[in-house]
Hints:
The chain is an alpha+beta fold. It has a domain of 117 residues: NADH Oxidase, CATH 3.40.109. The chain is 36% helix and 17% strand. Helix 2 packs across helix 5 and helix 3 packs across helix 4. The two termini are 29 Å apart. It binds flavin mononucleotide (FMN). Flavin mononucleotide binds next to strand 3. Its cofactor is FMN. Keywords: Flavoprotein, FMN, NAD, NADP, Oxidoreductase. Pfam families: Nitroreductase. It is an enzyme of class 1 (oxidoreductase).
Amino acid sequence: MSASSPPESALYEAILSRRSYSRVTDAAPKRSELLHLIAAAGRIADHGSLSPWRLIALRGKARERLGSALAKAARLNGDDASSLAAKPLRAPLLLAVVASYVPSEKVPRWEQEAVTSGVAHMLSLLLDDAGWGVIWRTGPHTRAKAVAKMHGLGKDEELLGWLYVGGMPDRTRSSHTKKVTPSAFLTTLR
Ligand SMILES: Cc1cc2nc3c(=O)[nH]c(=O)nc-3n(C[C@H](O)[C@H](O)[C@H](O)COP(=O)(O)O)c2cc1C
């Protein structure tokens, strides 16, 4: 590849074909596979090398406890509460994405949040490339007290949502991927 020819690397193709999967199957990556992928995702550019992030895996009953915390945060009862509480059960594995801010005069919190977000995007891509279905989900209660408490977050920690991870459903991945018109996103200051 030269500067003038179109890039065709495996990385370029993996990024171009990635997509979110709102429905996934019950299969999920094991801890050992997650650690392997996190070792790569954690290589994100990180101002000051603060590593201001961590991930929390929620499987099985932990997803139910998250559902209860969401319903509590929303102050819902009855069927509405049950329906919200069931949302974390849509995937066998949730990875809570946590910005774990490090005191720094040089690197403000927004930069540390950008690093955490970068890790989540990188990990999503790596999981997709490894054949797992992933979607990053948030919602109005992502930063509610009950939800932070359920995850055991510290006072300098904030959730950026969850990567819902499961088996990739059996269908052509190309059917969904959105096209990007690059020229619409690049201007030049003169
Ligand atoms: C920070 C963030 C939060 C998101 N929250 C949600 C969400 O709450 N619900 C949802 O369905 N998708 C959520 N998404 C996924 C986007 O909807 C999805 O990436 C978008 O529709 C584009 O689809 P694609 O990833 O397949 O290209 C989120 C993505 C990001 C990056």
